[in-house]
Specification:
Elements (H helix, E strand, L loop, with lengths): L9 H4 L13 E4 L3 H14 L34 E6 L5 H13 L7 E5 L6 E4 L6 E4 L14 E2 L9 H15 L17 H11 L4 H9 L4 H4 L33 H10 L3
Parallel strand pairs: 1-5, 2-3, 2-4, 4-6
Antiparallel strand pairs: 5-6
The chain binds zinc ion.
């Protein structure tokens, strides 16, 4: 049921059922520069042998069918791992608390612990820099980033941010940190994008280039890579998709919680 999702938080106050296009905040899936991709493959393999199944990593939408694979299976952490998390800047207490709270929700499904603290060797390093959007590197790619630099950013959190938005964005970014890709780029999905409208929208509101729209929005991962047998429009890893950007009224609303398939899939990939 991809076209109806009850809205929550700020949006509900609007009384409208439709996604408000001006409020779509897009997350950027961070792709390593080519110079780091060789190292990324090595650290991923070191971390977990079955990351080898998908070693030909690279950004989607840039190669032939399956020629370049990225994400999901190839960048997972070893189950049972404790990942240290550190804030590199000093966000307001409520922002910090909310990020911690929602990050820990993943621990119910993934055999991974997130330990927040000040360890200089933290694997996941967070900044809350406004104006830079929200983004994260994928899984073990974080190991290739310099220890002084963030692996995850929250660009629109303030003390006034609605609870549902903390839930939506934090769960989503920590999903990337676990190695999960954007669901709208699933090879099993088939979103009827109105491409001219989507280019216009993302280039003007997110400041993206045409190439970034291609890779972040229209790009698809290869089926062999993602294990994605079914497309899940309710996934926390799915973008909101306003109907103004699609044909035929297709719409995906704000997914603010982990879907049932998110939970099942996470248990499979990070078994106890
Ligand atoms: Zn994202």
């Amino acid at each position: 049921m991809p076209t109806r999702k009850k809205q929550t938080g700020d949006d509900a106050a609007d009384g409208g059922e439709n996604l408000r296009i001006e409020e779509v905040h897009a997350c950027t899936e961070m792709v390593l520069p080519p110079a780091l991709q060789g190292e990324a493959e090595m650290v991923a393999l070191d971390e977990r042998a079955d990351n080898a199944q998908a070693r030909n990593s690279g950004p989607p939408g840039t190669g032939g069918d399956g020629a370049r694979l990225a994400g999901l299976k190839g960048k997972l952490w070893k189950p049972g791992r404790t990942l240290r998390v550190r804030f590199l800047d000093n966000p307001p207490p409520r922002v910090r608390e909310q990020i911690e709270k929602y990050a820990h929700q993943w621990e119910h499904y993934a055999n991974i612990k997130f330990s927040f603290g000040t360890d200089p060797n933290a694997e996941i390093r967070i900044t809350c820099t406004p104006g830079q959007g929200s983004w994260s590197y994928l899984g073990t790619d974080a190991l290739t980033i310099s220890r002084s630099k963030p692996t995850m950013n929250y660009g629109w959190f303030t003390e006034q941010t609605a609870e549902s938005e903390f839930s939506r964005t934090t769960l989503h970014e920590f999903g990337h940190a676990l190695g999960f890709i954007h669901e709208h780029m699933s090879p099993a999905g088939n979103i009827p994008w109105n491409r001219p409208a989507a280019y216009r929208y993302y280039m003007s509101t997110q400041g993206w280039t045409k190439e970034q729209v291609d890779s972040q929005l229209f790009g698809k991962y290869a089926a062999s890579q993602t294990n994605a047998s079914a497309y899940d429009p309710t996934s926390i890893m799915h973008y909101p998709v306003p109907r103004q950007l699609t044909n035929g009224g297709f719409e995906v609303g704000w997914n603010t919680e982990l879907s049932e398939r998110d939970k099942t899939f996470t248990r499979q990939l990070y078994p106890a």
